[in-house]
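Renewal narrative, Specific Aim 1. Our central claim is that a sequence can be written position by position from structural information alone. The example that follows is taken directly from our test logs and has not been curated for this report. It begins with the structure tokens describing the chain, in the order in which they were read.
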């Protein structure tokens, strides 16, 4: 079985967990134009900490062929590193000003099978959900080849995340199955 795992690392999960209980002051991204999406990166600002959420293409084995696949990453940055990835891009700040109660990391896994044998397993981080007192802020990786990050806000924002089965393509030769796991990073903290 071929396994490809591009979920965010434990170090990245620890970095996200470190903002539970902190004030989420704002996020900075390119000005949203036609749909709630930004290209490649955005900055999330917390008390004394800035995180860059990124979705950049990497050449990966994708069902047996090398393809450019968007991979979500999280890293700590300085304010000077929160910049547009678009030439002459205009960034805006969106205020949040609420304490993070929990963070959910949503990971999807796709399996390709033939005759009850699993041939391929592809795991990736689909979204990060910041749970606030009266709403959620969601940063979702768009479809597999895209470098866009979708942004949703509201009391039911998590419900807008693309269904785990939506990226599966039909095949006469293979069958596919999927699974979604949700990790609550704040559940291990004593808040």
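The sequence written for that structure reads:
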């Amino acid at each position: 079985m071929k396994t490809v795992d591009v979920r965010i690392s434990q170090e990245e999960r620890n970095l996200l967990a470190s903002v539970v209980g902190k004030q989420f002051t704002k996020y900075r991204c390119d000005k949203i134009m036609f749909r709630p999406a930004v290209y490649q990166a955005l900055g999330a600002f917390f008390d004394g900490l800035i995180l860059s959420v990124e979705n950049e293409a990497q050449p990966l084995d994708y069902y047996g062929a090398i393809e450019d696949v968007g991979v979500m990453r999280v890293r700590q940055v300085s304010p000077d590193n929160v910049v547009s990835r678009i030439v002459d891009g205009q960034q805006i700040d969106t205020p949040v000003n609420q304490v993070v109660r929990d963070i959910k990391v949503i990971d999807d896994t796709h399996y390709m099978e033939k005759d009850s044998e699993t041939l391929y397993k592809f795991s990736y981080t689909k979204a990060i959900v910041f749970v606030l007192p009266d709403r959620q802020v969601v940063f979702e990786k768009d479809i597999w080849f895209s470098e866009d990050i979708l942004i949703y806000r509201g009391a039911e924002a998590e419900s807008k995340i693309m269904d785990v089965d939506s990226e599966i393509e039909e095949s006469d030769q293979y069958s596919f199955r999927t699974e979604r796991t949700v990790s609550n990073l704040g559940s291990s903290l004593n808040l």
